[in-house]
């Protein structure tokens, strides 16, 4: 038995448990702690106002809280300055912002490097940028274990490389990538670096200073915060390379009918009314994480993953994809279709994810048509996994 | 409205099945025995139903004003869902097809959840394709 000391902080867990549901899909989106729910309720109850424009007292209070959250996020991820934090709608928007914002810096023949395991969000913006500008998209191959092959990476990343965009923690293979080494390779070539921390930030507090990346992206909703807010960290110098891409209120400094000039980062990239409530909720989520013992959380999540992997590996015909290091595992079963398995698990109240997990090219590369993903969060416990395995055995018994 | 004979069989069988396991067994049985199988040669992009996480192929033809459907999938339970869907509409004319409430049909079989919008099994997409193709 491995109970989670943090489970009581998440009211949805007991509600789902009462309904016979076991939530093992946190890599898709995470449940929220009471303190985040309270922050949202508190914000809407105490009076909303738009940020950065109203001169009245409510506006001042909300703007102050909004900007304080920028500071919280900056401190949490090791940014040098709150102005290096841009709030977006989600991680996907952050990647698109960077891709459109940097477009003017690249010319035909330049190369963008990604890895073979990227989520569509960190693939398609670059693929389409390459198509628009005549760039070459190069893909870093993986070891069997699901880690980027550094030796090959050193030959792919070269003097034509202008940008490297890689995931820190794979949403399919659960593998930590050697981003530190990859960033070093890219920097040697003077290339810009973008790290997809959508999964990684949840399981290891990011330190952008230590990483030395130019951009780092994550989304709020996977980090126990509301959906509707993503974060783009950009090193001050790197943010200055970005051209404005969405125009409207908030981001403009001076407007006339026929011309305008725009604010620098971060406000210059936050056109229109932001998701104020969600941003404040993100602040509350990070405050919550600050209160936890990081070593305790890491040890708990590692023990859960070990239990999960042991259970999967002892079952005949179960094949785990890659060698997961953290947070999640995908698996297939010989002669059993992932969709059928998902159906049988879902009928038993097990919330897992079937399919290709927004990483279709990776599945083509692995030669699998789909898999089941079990993903973990700090509120899961071994009882969740026991229920999962009982359901899995029943499902396999039926389907085999 | 009287059900087509195959649909009546499905209704009788599924009504008698208790619990998800028995229904799943029945689905696999129907998928194996009662699905008008689309020949391999026709399992191409043109027949592939977009919007299914699992590959599903569907062919809709109208012969003498009557619908004739064939389908295929690699997943056994999906084949079963296709079989009971097709059992309900095969042989109908366009007018009769318009009167079908497909949600009610799956509900009667105890399979209502399989048509929820969040399902990626594609039964919704298959149904839309049947409606479009038979117009």
TrEMBL record, chain A:
Domain of life assignment: Bacteria
Names of the cofactor(s): pyridoxal 5'-phosphate
UniProt keyword Transferase, yes or no: yes
Example GO molecular function: pyridoxal phosphate binding
SUPFAM superfamilies named in the record: PLP-dependent transferases
Keywords: Pyridoxal phosphate, Transferase
Name assigned to this protein: cysteine desulfurase
Native source species: Pseudomonas matsuisoli
From TrEMBL, chain B:
InterPro entries for the chain: Fe-S_metab-assoc_dom
Ranges of residues in domain Fe-S metabolism associated: 12-130
Family: Belongs to the SufE family.
Pfam family, one: SufE
Designated name of the protein: Fe-S metabolism protein SufE
């Amino acid at each position: 038995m491995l109970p989670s000391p943090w489970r009581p902080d998440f009211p949805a867990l007991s509600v789902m448990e009462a309904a016979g549901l076991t939530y093992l899909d946190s890599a898709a989106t995470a449940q929220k702690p009471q303190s985040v729910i309270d922050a949202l309720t508190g914000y809407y109850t105490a009076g909303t106002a738009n940020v950065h424009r109203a001169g009245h007292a409510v506006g001042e209070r909300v703007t102050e809280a909004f900007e304080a959250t920028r500071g919280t996020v900056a401190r949490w991820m090791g940014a040098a300055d709150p102005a290096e934090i841009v709030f977006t709608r989600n991680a996907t928007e952050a990647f698109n912002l960077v891709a459109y914002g940097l477009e003017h810096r690249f010319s035909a023949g330049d190369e963008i490097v990604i890895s073979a395991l990227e989520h569509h969000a960190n693939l398609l913006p670059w693929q389409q940028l390459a198509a628009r500008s005549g760039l070459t998209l190069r893909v870093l191959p993986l070891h069997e274990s699901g880690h980027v092959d550094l030796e090959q990476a050193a030959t792919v990343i070269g003097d034509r490389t202008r940008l490297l965009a890689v995931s820190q923690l794979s949403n399919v293979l659960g593998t930590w990538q050697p981003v530190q080494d990859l960033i070093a390779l890219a920097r040697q070539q003077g290339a810009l670096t973008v790290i997809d921390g959508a999964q990684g930030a949840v399981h290891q507090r990011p330190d952008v200073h230590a990483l030395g990346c130019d951009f780092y992206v994550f989304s709020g909703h996977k980090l126990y915060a509301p959906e509707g807010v993503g974060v783009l960290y950009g090193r001050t110098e790197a943010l200055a390379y970005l051209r404005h891409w969405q125009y409207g209120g908030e981001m403009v400094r001076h407007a006339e009918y026929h011309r305008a000039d725009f604010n620098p980062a971060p406000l210059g990239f936050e056109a229109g009314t932001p998701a104020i409530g969600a941003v404040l909720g993100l602040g509350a989520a990070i405050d919550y994480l600050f209160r936890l013992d990081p070593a305790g959380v890491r040890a708990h999540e590692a023990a859960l993953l070990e239990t999960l992997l042991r259970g999967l590996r002892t079952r005949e015909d179960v094949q785990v994809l890659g060698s997961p290091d953290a947070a999640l595992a995908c698996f297939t079963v010989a002669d059993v279709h992932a969709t059928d398995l998902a159906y049988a698990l879902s009928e038993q109240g097990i919330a897992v994810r079937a399919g290709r997990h927004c990483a279709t090219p990776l599945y083509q590369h692995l030669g699998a048509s789909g898999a089941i993903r079990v993903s973990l969060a700090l509120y899961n416990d071994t009882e969740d996994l026991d229920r999962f395995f009982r359901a899995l055995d029943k499902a396999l018994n039926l389907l085999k | 409205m009287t059900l087509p004979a195959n649909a009546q069989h499905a209704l009788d069988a599924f009504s008698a099945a208790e619990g998800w396991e028995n229904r799943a067994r029945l689905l696999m049985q129907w998928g194996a025995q009662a699905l008008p199988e689309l020949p391999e040669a026709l399992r191409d992009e043109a027949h592939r139903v977009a919007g299914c996480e699992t590959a599903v192929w569907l062919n809709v033809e109208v012969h003498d004003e009557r619908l004739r459907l064939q389908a295929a999938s690699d997943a056994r339970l999906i084949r079963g869902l296709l079989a009971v869907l097709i059992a309900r509409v095969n042989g109908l004319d366009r007018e009769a097809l318009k009167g079908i409430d497909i949600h009610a049909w799956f509900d009667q079989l105890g399979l209502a959840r399989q048509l929820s919008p969040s399902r990626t099994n594609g039964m919704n997409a298959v149904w839309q394709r049947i409606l479009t193709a038979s117009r």
